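Task card 7
Instruction: Convert sequence to structure tokens.
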Amino acid sequence: MTGVIVTALLTYRGSRTAAAIQAEPNQRAADLAAFKTIRDDMQSEIAETKTELRQTKDELRSVRSLLRSFSGYVVELTTQMRSHGVEPPAPPDRIAEYNRTGV
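Output:
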């Protein structure tokens, strides 16, 4: 009778070990699939962020160009006013700061 119990116990342990060994590749496959999904989502977000950054840079370039053009135009108007004896009003603080620092 003891032999039967030992055999049953060994069979039970063997079955559990075999099941664990068989489940490991399945778990690895599930982990890999999850990893690929996460990676793909992150790559998609990175691509979107790069596109947004490119658009922001283009917009910033355009705004800087507009600011330079506008600044030159204001200088021309100021020069014309002074040449006709008209003193233009003092610029707002923010513009005076920009003229001093360029920022």
